[in-house]
Amino acid sequence: MDVNDLIANTLGGMVGYLVIRAASRVSATAGIVRAFALHGEQISAGRTLAVEVR
After folding, report:
1. What pLDDT shows up at residue 42?
2. What percent of the chain lies above the pLDDT cut of 70?
3. Within 13 Å and on the Cβ side, how many CA atoms surround 2?
4. Average pLDDT of the segment spanning 40-48
């Protein structure tokens, strides 16, 4: 693995996280983000990602 690959993958993950976080705050796309959320995770009415602890 090259250092360039590591940097690109890290930056890509960070950008992807920021895009999903921004999309979950826009009411038009919040439903789509909720539909694809992982099992056990919820996006509350305040539009923040909260992990359900059982």
Report:
1. 60
2. 70
3. 3
4. 57
DSSP 50: E
**Coil vs helix vs strand at 43:** strand
Burial category of 54 from C-beta neighbours within 10 Å (exposed 0-12, middle 13-18, buried 19 and up): exposed
Distances (CA, A) of 40 to 1, 3, 9, 29, 52: 33, 34, 26, 20, 6
Radius of gyration of the chain (CA): 14
- The model's pTM is 0.56
Other Cβ atoms within 10 Å of 50 Cβ, number: 10
Q: What is the pLDDT of residue 21?
A: 85
Instruction: Report d(CA 20, CA 15) in Å as an integer.
Output: 9
